[in-house]
Every structure is written in C-alpha cells, then in structure tokens.
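Example record

The entry below shows one chain as it appears in the dataset: sequence first, then structure tokens.
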Amino acid sequence: MNYIITWFYRESADEASFYPQMGQKGDSALVHSIYMQIQVPFFHTFRRYNPEAGLLFFTNLQRDSLPRFLLETFDALRVKVITLPYTCRPPKDWYGAWQNQFYLYDILRDMEGRMQADDTVLVCDADCLCRSSLGPLFDETRKRGSALYEFITDRTVSINGITLPQMEAFYEACYGEPPRSPLAYYGGEFITLRGDKVSLINRAFRELWQFNLNRTSRNIPKLNEEAHVLSILAERLNLRNAIANRYVKRMWTSPQFNNVRPEDEHLAVWHLPYEKKRGLYRLFRLLEKQKGLGDEACFWKKAKAWTGVPAVSLVKRLRDRWTTLLMLFTK
C-alpha cells in the first residue's frame, strides 16, 4: 500500500503560535478556515493521479466538527479522517512560530501500526497540488527506504532559530560523535518513507526528543521545528538523499520573492506556501462549484494562471489583492 497523508492541528488560544504566511496566530478563525479550504484542491489532485493510494487526513478535531464541504469531499474521494491527540507538543513558549509541527511524529507513531514493512507513506503539506502519478516516487522509496526534500540554504543563515553548523554541534552533543558529513536541511513539507524506516524513526525520536527538551531552559540552540528533527534523524539513521527534489519544489510566488522556473510546472508536486489565501483559495472555489477537476487541460490552465506557475501575470497580482481583501472582510 502507498499512503498519502496531510494534516491539520487546531491550536487553542493557550498554545497558539504565529504563522507568518497567514499573518495570524494558530487559533484564529481565518487560519482554520483557510486550512480547511486548501484540503479540497490537495485531495482532489492527489486522488486524480493516485487512484489506488490510501488517502488519510490527520487532525485533533472530531470528524463531525469538520465543515460539510470537506466531509463531502472526503466521502467522494475516499479519504479517511483520523482524529489523533498531540502528545509530542513542546513546552509553552518553546518557539514563536509553528509549534504544531511536531504533530508529525504523532502521525508517524500512528502509521507504524497501520503499515507493513514494505508499505510507503508520503506526509505532505496541504498547500500542495499533485500534477502526475507518484508511482515512481513510491517505487524509489520502496527501494531506498526514504525520499527526502533537501532544501538548499546558506550554512550561515539561521533556519527558524538554528544554523546548520549549530545543528552539527547539537548532533555531536547528543550522540557523542560528529555527523559523517555536513548536515543538510530536509524540508518537512514532503517526506516519503518505507514502513520499516517509519519504525526506526519512531524509536530514534524518543532519545532525540528527550535530549532536545532538556535544552529548553538553557540558552543554547535547540531543534525548534519538525524539519530540524528530521534532518538530525536522517543523518543518524542513514536516510539522507535528495530524491524528492526530482518530484517537488517549494515554489515562492510572492512579489518580494519568486523562485519559480519554467521547468517547474512539470514537477509532480507543486508546493505553494504563498498561495494559501490566493491561488489555492480560488481553486477551492472552482472545485466546489464544479465538484471535481472536470476537464484536466482547462483545470490546469486555470491553476497555472491563478498560482503563478510558471509565471506571475499582472492580472494575477491584481486578483490576489482583491481575493485577500475579500477574504479578510468576509471572515
């Protein structure tokens, strides 16, 4: 079995952290609404090109508390909702943003009980669109054990509170030996693992997590988000590779930064962080109106124009401004 998973953890007012892409804290109604809406284009596109995959949605919410449009989508696309508590939550005031991200390790713990050793699982952020079959990705994962997205970054730059050299020092302090080669940062938005490697990560996570928690009250660098932990475990468990870079890219389409290239439109998965309130919202509205992708060529023509892949037009810029203003005043 090949599993495809995304998730949403709704934070309470007491634990809410900041989400820079949303400009809001995690307990806001706007953040909740946006994350519910982007599940629709995610699951429609992933199901279209992966008809036999097991699609799962993890959340701390009860199924009957999800919006009707989402439940109808899940029923139509055979998506299973799994309500799961957050046991890997870091202490309060751990870090200013994305404190829900360690939910990933609760998900992997749950998946260990569902998967056979040769099954594969893709855990993917919901602000993604699938453009083609992920069969080749799952085949590579089954052969290699993992397929990770290596996010290239300057080693001197702080990545959510820690640099790569500081992560290497953390690694040596935790395990009593340096990493075999300089660490890479593996993005948490796209992680593919074979079932036996899920079990290895779950066992290794316990020791690493406790060591990380012990650094909370000390003024030394710690692992602030799930991708930091993944990057350490990938080295420790010999899971390092950049296989997923052939399938996905973190595509920024904002006026301040745009890294999209013409060839990117042919990738199997588009990761579109800037488009949550813009292009993905418009695709949600379209899919709700026509109850599916409909004509694929027509759908992807609109998807490219609305998300700015491979190019952002002036019309898109104007439409984005209007869409975000409308969303702000109607929530």
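Notes for this example: The radius of gyration is 19 Å. Residues 29-49 form the longest helix (21 residues).
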